[in-house]
Amino acid sequence: MRPEKTLTNLQGWRAGLLWFTQAEQPQARHETDGLLVTAREADGIVRIQALGPYRELAAQYPDLPVTHWPGLCIAPGFVDLHIHYPQTDVIGSPAEGLLPWLEHYTFPHEKHFSQPAYAHEVTAFFMDELMRHGVTTALCFATAHPESVDVFMAEAQKRHLRMVTGKVLQDRHSPDGLRDTDTALSLRQTEDLIRRWHGVDRLGYAITPRFAPTSTPKQLHGAGEIAQQFPDVWIQSHVAENLDEIRWVLELFPEARSYLDVYDRANLLRQRSVYAHCIYLDDTDRRRMAEVGATAAVSPTSNLFLGSGFFNYAASDAAGLRYGLASDVGGGTSFSPFHTMHAAYTVARQSVGHPGISLAPEHLWWQHTAGAAAAMDLSGQVGNLLPGCEADFVVLNPKATPLLARRTAQTETLAEWLFAMIVLGDERLIAHTVVQGQTVNIASQVSSFSP
Ligand code: GUN
Ligand code: ZN
């Protein structure tokens, strides 16, 4: 006999429901009048207990308090696979590609995060912004300063969020104030932060070498050793984003077969390693990532803004390389999952260097929810509404703007309805964001920042 689960705060949510089946080829499912049942379990986490048509499920829960949102639709909270919170104020800084952008805007700006009070103000704004856009989990870069991790984790913990971040490792080709001047210390700081934060409440740690050019081989190999010591922490970095960057990597690491191979040789490729961009991989690289369970964070608004290139969906599918969507703020231009999904569609349509394809709207949505969760090895925990998933979700208002109302009313299939929201949507579509069964007040948030 299965022991009865200890449940408290049983709560019902009645609205439309959008979710994904858990299968080799996941399918989107939609229920126009659904019921989602959530409860706090013995470990303190609020999880989904049941979902289904209201008319069938409601009778099984006679005394359930129910929040009813007629005309709205509950969908999984979005998962952003790659984002930099310290680059919130770097969005929209123009440059002649990645390397000048890093040198002139990003590196100088990230130096400020040695000051915890500054880092805290940005963290709070950043998390408000994620909530307004319906993003409930993110795999996030901090900066090279350990304090930048502490303030982020503390804020995420206060808000009961599932978030993953890490101190950036960069011990060369970086300015004073951002560079790790003592490689051994940078590795000790990483280990200390893992012990302090990984697995605490809903927080996770990611070992975070910025990218191969800004780490010495000693730092990369040290990071790989820590990864072996802590098999369930994440690893995140950038790879094969820009042609000048790739030329530089191959000069710095002449022994490597490819850019990706630099990380492989340092034991930084494995399950729970997420690499941003992955534009200029070859098939050997793609197969290698697939073989070890490493995944790609596809960042189309960033790739367009920095003129980096186009992610090759067809080749990735052929190699079995798993991927999900990411904003890559501040190279990326928007926190909005709708903007990212729209850009991913547009980019996949391009036939520069490889055949253009038309990504299905259900697949685009999956890439930013259950697919991104799978890429983080968090299937069944976030990014979906199936029983057992944590109760982080968004409530969509398909009538949020006159054009959305008009266009969505004329759709006949689920695919058409989702596509209209992907193409026309922004944060106005997010009527509510619910984290751990609590509705976050997103409407009243106004920035108090004065430059
Ligand atoms: N490569 C190394 N650092 C960065 C960064 O901050 N953003 C992007 N897009 N690429 C990088
Ligand atoms: Zn990035």
Brief rundown of the structure:
The chain has 451 residues and is α/β, with parallel strands linked by helices.
Verbal overview:
- Helix 3 (116-132) crosses helix 4 (146-158), helix 12 packs across helix 16 (414-424) and helix 15 packs antiparallel against helix 16.
- Strands 5, 6, 7, 8, 9, 10, 11, 12 and 13 form a nine-stranded parallel beta sheet that branches.
- This protein folds into two domains: 8-77 and 383-439, Urease, subunit C, domain 1, CATH 2.30.40.10; 78-375, Alpha-Beta Barrel (TIM Barrel).
- The mean pLDDT is 96.
- Helices cover 35% and strands 24% of the residues.
- It has 451 residues and is α/β, with parallel strands linked by helices.
- Strand 2 (28-40) and strand 3 form a beta hairpin.
- 52% of the residues are buried.
- The protein binds guanine and zinc ion.
- Guanine binds at residues 84, 98, 102, 106, 210-211, 238, 241, 302, 328, 331.
- Guanine is lined by residues 84, 98, 102, 106, 210-211, 238, 241, 302, 328, 331.
Please write out the topology.
Layout: E1 8-20, E2 28-40, E3 46-53, H1 54-57, E4 66-76, E5 78-84, H2 98-110, H3 116-132, E6 135-141, H4 146-158, E7 162-166, E8 168-169, H5 183-197, E9 203-209, H6 217-229, E10 234-239, H7 243-252, H8 259-265, E11 273-277, H9 283-292, E12 295-298, H10 300-305, H11 313-319, E13 322-325, H12 337-349, H13 361-367, H14 370-375, E14 392-396, H15 402-409, H16 414-424, E15 430-435, E16 438-440
Parallel strand pairs: 1-4, 5-6, 6-7, 7-9, 8-9, 9-10, 10-11, 11-12, 12-13
Antiparallel strand pairs: 1-2, 2-3, 4-14, 14-15, 15-16
Bound molecules: guanine (GUN) and zinc ion.
